[in-house]
User: What shape does this take?
Amino acid sequence: MWKRSSFRAMVVASPLSAPEKGWTVTRKTAIYHSQSVRGHVTSKYVSYERSREQRMPELFRAAKAATMTPDAPVIEDAAIIAHQGIIREVGTYRDLAPSFSGTITDLGDITLTPGLINAHSHLELAHLRGKCPQGAGFVTWVENLLQQPIFDLDEDELDKAVDELKRSGTVMVGDIATRFAKQMAGVLEASGLFFAVFVEAIGETIPKKTFIPKGEYENGLLSVAGHSLYTTHRDVLRAAKAEATQRSIPFSIHLAEHDEEVAIMADRESEFLDLLQARGRLLDFVAPQKRPVEQAAELGLLDETTLAVHCVKVTDEDIQTVRDSGATVCLCPRSNEYIGVGRAPWEKWLASGTPLCLGTDSLASNYDLDLWNEAVYLKKNFDGELSFEQLLAMVTRNPANILGAGQYLGTLEPGKRAVFATVPDTISQLF
Assistant: This one.
């Protein structure tokens, strides 16, 4: 579980080089740890020093700050005062600077945001970047995936994936772990990223004691996820959700991702079911003859602590069911396009008032782990109005809340962790 006193402070933007141990330098600022050594950073945008213990408070000045708080969503000529990794004050430079005593860092003509949160990934598959077919449909994609060394962790590729998350401004990830939950939590803990690692429940066996291995982490937590309504037995799904509820931690499930899922649940002909049964899977599966969202609701899987991932193949009634349950939906638009499963009704989801997040999904079904690229894709292909604040909420405040980090991340306000991202031009030019 989260250890409040142990969160590391960082400022995040995009990559450059690292001159000293303890620093990851970026074009616009630097990721730093509270225990980092004395260092000097010089780049096009910023030049400053930090002491070993960072005893003095720091004021960060930026042209704008998108706080994601209801009372002051965007502040012009913004100032954020941080001390020991915690935001102490947020306001205008004019109001805060005169009485401030400490280090002032002027970041220039940029927009600061809360650090980004990737709500859904599969970092175990980092070594499969570019190795699975694009746009050929779910069955073809799975057939190819099953031929890959999916359970061979590649430490180098995993390190590259983690670095990619950091470079793009991501400070937290909701990661699905099929086999290596403790290893993934360890990697993320060592990286300084915040995390929620979901142990994926698949099959028909309920563990004797727990789905979740023991482990205490400074920067995150372990939880449990159901793989899907058809690959995970309904009793296992109920048990997994019950354990998450009992522990007051989030639960996740892939839901209504593709047409094959809808067909399997409805007891209709399915090429994917044929594929699974040919491999000895789902031989005793009994279709509930319900739509996926309807079945998830009947099993008690949908509530305010559930993250439902994809939700592509849904009806208006399904959307209302999810909205009424209080669940959060994670959209993975580029992954859906990459595999070729279709496009979620983003506009209807937004209009429904359902809390929405964005996730990159795995590198077996996406081009990169850059959430800004995910946001650009969504904005460019969105049919209707999608405001900057609505889009930013999907990668900051909403995922922080559903992943159990709302007390620490997701907004720029006093008491939150001093972790920031900067808005790239690819986003700014769309608004």
Notes: The radius of gyration is 22 Å. Residues 116-406 form a domain with the TIM Barrel fold (CATH 3.20.20.140).
